[in-house]
C-alpha cells in the first residue's frame, strides 16, 4: 500500500493525463476505451476560374489547388489543343499558369491529386475567355535603340479612341537611369505622352513598357498586344531664336555652340510669324517640297530641312531669300538659313532637340500632336487620367 500511494503522488506531479494512465494501468480495473482512429484524409481539387465560367480576363492566371493532398498532374489546353504553360509550387498544392490566355477561346483543364489515403481524385472542367468587340493596336515612340534629343517626349498612339483612359494609363510604365521626374498627359483620346518636368538629363537611359494586352478600353474594346521600347537621350543641344534679332543660336550643355544669321516669319502678320513657344525637331529631311497656294507658291524645293511643328514651320536653307537673312524677317513662318549654315545645323541636329522661339506676336497653337513643351507643368499634369 505504501508503494501505490507513492506512485499516485508522482503521477499527480506529472499531470492529469498520466494520473489516469497510472491508475488504470495496473490491470485491476476494466479495460480503457481506445481513442477513435481518424481515417486518412481524402484530397480535393478546386480551380480558378471555376468550371463553366464565362468572359474570363485573358491576363488573370489560371490556378489549380489541392487540399488535403498533393497535385500529381495538371493540364490546361486551349480549343486548338495547345497546352498552357504553368508551374507547380514547391508544396505541390498549387499550379499557376505562366502565360496570358487568348481572346475568345475555350480552355479545358484536367487535374489529379493524391490524398493521405493514397487515393487519387480528379477534376475536369472548362471556361471561356472574354471575346472583344474589337482589339485596338497601339504604337510607341521613340523606337528601340533610338538616340534622341533632351526634349523628346514618349508617345503612345492608339488606332482608335480610348474611353477608359485610366485603365490604359495604369498599364504604362517608364523607368529611367538616372531617375527623372515626369508625367503622362492625354493630348487626345488617341494619344498619351510622357515628358519630363524639365529637359531630360543628357545620356539618360529610358525603358518603357506598355502592358496593354487584355486592358479593357471601354465599349468592349481591348488592347491588342504589349509594346515596349528602350532608348537613350543624347547630348544636350537647344536652339534659341529671338525673332527680332535675326539670329539662330545653338547651345550645347548651356554654352553657345554656334550662331547663324536667319530670316524668320513676317513680323507684321501674326499668321506668318515664326510663333513663340518651345517645340522640338520632329523630322530631318535632306530635301523637302513646300506648297502653299494661299500665298502663291507650289512645288518649292528646299535643302537641309528640320521640321519643328505640324503647323508648317521648318528650319531650312533658303538661298532665294539670301538678301534678307540676318537682316529682315520675310518668311512665311519658317526659319531661313544660308545653305552652308543650314547644312551645318542639319548635321548637328537630333530628333527631339528643343527649339525655343520668343519675340513674335503670335504663339504656337496647341493643335499639333507634338505640343508637349507648349504646356506649363501644372497644365501638363492636369491632363493625366490618374
UniProtKB/TrEMBL annotation:
Pfam families: Big_10, YkuD. Pathway: Cell wall biogenesis; peptidoglycan biosynthesis. Keywords: Acyltransferase, Cell shape, Cell wall biogenesis/degradation, Lipoprotein, Peptidoglycan synthesis, Transferase. Gene3D superfamilies: 2.60.40.3710, 2.60.40.3780, L,D-transpeptidase catalytic domain-like. One of its GO terms (molecular function) is peptidoglycan L,D-transpeptidase activity. Residues 237-358 form the L,D-TPase catalytic domain. SUPFAM superfamilies: L,D-transpeptidase catalytic domain-like. The active site is at residues 316, 334. The keyword Nucleotide-binding does not apply. Residues 32-43 have a biased composition (Low complexity). PROSITE patterns: LD_TPASE, PROKAR_LIPOPROTEIN, TAT. GO terms for biological process: cell wall organization; peptidoglycan-protein cross-linking; regulation of cell shape. The keyword Secreted does not apply. GO terms for cellular component: extracellular region. Residues 26-56 are annotated as: Disordered. This is Lipoprotein-anchoring transpeptidase ErfK/SrfK. It comes from Amycolatopsis marina.
